[in-house]
């Protein structure tokens, strides 16, 4: 039997029982080829199983919008890093508008929104609330810093 288990550290342990090796030994001359096949198959299983763990490491940043600010009002990400922004309105309808990155997402109370970004350029990208939300609407700004 070939068995792959994920440890608490996130590393997979592949176990090949002696029965699995014996089952593959049809002829003595093929045993090395079969052992190589089992090893490569085990590595393939481990790679396939580890793929979700890699995706799980993607960063998510929660941003709250309320009259008249974003919290946090500034975030920093790395160039080429894929980040998911979880946008939550704590009161009325807002939007996160960052023109330079093509982002304009409405955030309605009770209906969180998600935006996935992968910035390709470094710099400071200013944003604001793009949906009129009251007298302090013009003060509702946001900055996305993109570093190397």
What does this structure look like?
The protein is an alpha+beta fold and 148 residues long. It folds into two domains: 2-56, no CATH class; 59-147, Cupredoxins -  blue copper proteins (Immunoglobulin-like). Helices cover 22% and strands 42% of the residues. It is built from two helices and eleven strands; from the N terminus they run E-E-H-H-E-E-E-E-E-E-E-E-E. It has helices at residues 18-24, 31-56, and strands at 2-6, 12-16, 59-66, 69-71, 74-78, 83-89, 94-98, 103-107, 113-117, 123-129, 141-147. The strands form three sheets. It has a five-stranded mixed sheet with strand order 5-11-10-7-8, with no helix packed on it. A four-stranded mixed sheet has the order 4-3-6-9, with no helix packed on it. The longest helix is centred in the first third of the chain and has 26 residues, at 31-56. The protein is elongated, with a radius of gyration of 25 Å. 13% of the residues are buried.
Topology:
Elements: E1 2-6, E2 12-16, H1 18-24, H2 31-56, E3 59-66, E4 69-71, E5 74-78, E6 83-89, E7 94-98, E8 103-107, E9 113-117, E10 123-129, E11 141-147
Parallel strand pairs: 3-6, 5-11
Antiparallel strand pairs: 1-2, 3-4, 6-9, 7-8, 7-10, 10-11
Could you write a compact summary of the structure shown?
By secondary structure, this protein is α+β, with helices and mostly antiparallel strands. It has helices at residues 18-24, 31-56, and strands at 2-6, 12-16, 59-66, 69-71, 74-78, 83-89, 94-98, 103-107, 113-117, 123-129, 141-147.
């Amino acid at each position: 039997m070939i068995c792959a288990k994920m440890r608490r550290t996130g590393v997979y342990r592949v176990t090949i029982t002696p029965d699995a090796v014996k089952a593959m030994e049809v002829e003595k001359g093929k045993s090395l080829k079969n052992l190589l096949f089992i090893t490569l198959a085990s590595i393939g299983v481990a790679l396939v199983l580890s793929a979700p763990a890699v995706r799980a490491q993607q960063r998510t940043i929660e941003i709250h919008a309320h009259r008249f600010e974003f919290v946090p009002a500034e975030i920093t990400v790395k160039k080429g890093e894929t980040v998911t922004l979880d946008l939550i309105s704590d009161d009325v309808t807002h939007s996160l508008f960052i023109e330079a990155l093509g982002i304009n997402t409405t955030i309605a109370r009770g209906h969180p929104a998600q935006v996935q970004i992968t910035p390709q350029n470094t710099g400071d990208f200013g944003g604001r609330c793009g949906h009129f939300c009251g007298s302090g609407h013009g003060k509702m700004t946001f900055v996305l810093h993109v570093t190397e």
